[in-house]
Amino acid sequence: MFSLSRKDLTSLVVLAAIVLTMPIWLAPFGAAYPGLMQKFAIYAIFAVGFNILFGLTGYLSFGHAAFVGIGSYTAVWSFKLLTMDILPAMIFAVIISGLFALVIGYFCLRRTGIYFSILTLAFAQMCYSLAYSVLTPLTNGETGLLLAGNDPRYIDKMFGVTYGSGLPTPTFLGTTLGGYGGFYLTAIVLIVIFFISQKIFASPFGMALRGIKSNQTRMMYTGFNTKPYTLAAFVVSGMIAGLAGALLSVTDPLAGTERMRWTESGNVVLMTILGGVGTLFGPIVGAWLIKYFENIFSAINSNMLNNFFSFLPDGIQSLMVTVTSKFVGEGWHLTLGLMFVLIVVFLPGGLVEGAKRVAARFDRKKPRTGPAPAPQPAE
């Protein structure tokens, strides 16, 4: 059950080493602070889960942010009603998100292609509207669901747990989470989700999903019932998205409708395509790249650009600052859009697939130093 092939085990060890050493190798890039690294890990989890649906079945969902929001609201309600320990919050978030995914997937998977995508978008917008203006007693509407000092927390009261006069913070088995503790929690969850993704990709279930992506009609003509497989993939993907939403509430204990917007669903599509659809590492690379641009490039201002180009003559310095300022700060989306266009045109398989092609090309160019293979007699 927990065994992996040598290739998958190597991939898992490499990912674990990369994720757990992020505070070291992200420092030169100015991104080694816990809040941003937590976002890197959480959105990588979201993208890996989305890739199980989109990468294996080819079903493109524009509504997966709804499950992130559902997971966030579930986690915060767990903090308010039960306990500040994160384990019940994460478990309930996965279960509730899975139930919503089961219902939404049951209806959406009656259609394929663009019609499926539109249905998922419609359901996501309905969930957003419900959270924003209809179910305000549960979601607190535009303000968002927040913790309060007088929340009941029945399990904590049962065991005599108190949190002082300030607002409580999430804990893990009695240990307060914050800073690097929160990051390493999300990092470990990312490694576990990556392992689950590996098992799905290598399983007969994953092979069936690839067959559905390749030619669903042919599989149906052979008597293969594809509906349970696509629905299972949709539910698993929604549950992982709900887990990502719960982790967002663990690291920042609030839940708001902004996590359910259609733009968030679009972001995870971009993450997966940039990194490589259907690859194991691709969604993680795409998530890290987009979150880096969003948090680092968007913070660059004219003063920073002037300091960076200070070695140039005044006229050229002013010109460079004027040009580059359009691509950073508030204009960071322009840089992301240009990069997305270049990758789709020149590396249609994404960054990971493109790296594999480049490596294979260099490998073919290496001279063979060993003895030539002996000719085989004709049969």
Q: What report would you give on this structure?
A:
The chain has 379 residues and is mainly α. The chain has one domain (6-280): ABC transporter involved in vitamin B12 uptake, BtuC, CATH 1.10.3470. It contains 17 helices and 4 strands. It has helices spanning 6-20, 22-25, 34-57, 65-81, 86-108, 113-134, 136-139, 154-158, 180-202, 204-221, 227-251, 262-275, 282-295, 302-308, 314-324, 332-346, 350-365, and strands spanning 145-146, 171-172, 175-176, 254-255. The strands form 2 sheets. The chain has a two-stranded antiparallel ribbon with strand order 1-4. Strands 2-3 form a two-stranded antiparallel ribbon. Helix 4 (65-81) packs antiparallel against helix 5, helix 5 (86-108) packs antiparallel against helix 11 and helix 12 runs parallel beside helix 17 (350-365). The chain is globular, with a radius of gyration of 23 Å. The two termini are 43 Å apart.
Defining traits:
mainly alpha; ABC transporter involved in vitamin B12 uptake, BtuC; two-stranded antiparallel sheet; two-stranded antiparallel ribbon; 2% strand
Helix content: 55-70%
DSSP E strands, number = 4
Shape: globular
User: At CATH's second level, what is the architecture?
Assistant: Orthogonal Bundle
Low-pLDDT segments, ≥5 res? none
Largest sheet at a glance? Answer: 2 strands, antiparallel
Distance between the termini: 43 Å
CATH topology: ABC transporter involved in vitamin B12 uptake, BtuC
Which class of secondary structure composition applies to the elements?
mainly alpha
Q: In DSSP terms, counting alpha (H) and pi (I) runs of 4 or more, how many helices?
A: 17
Overall CATH class? Mainly Alpha
Kindly give the count of domains: 1
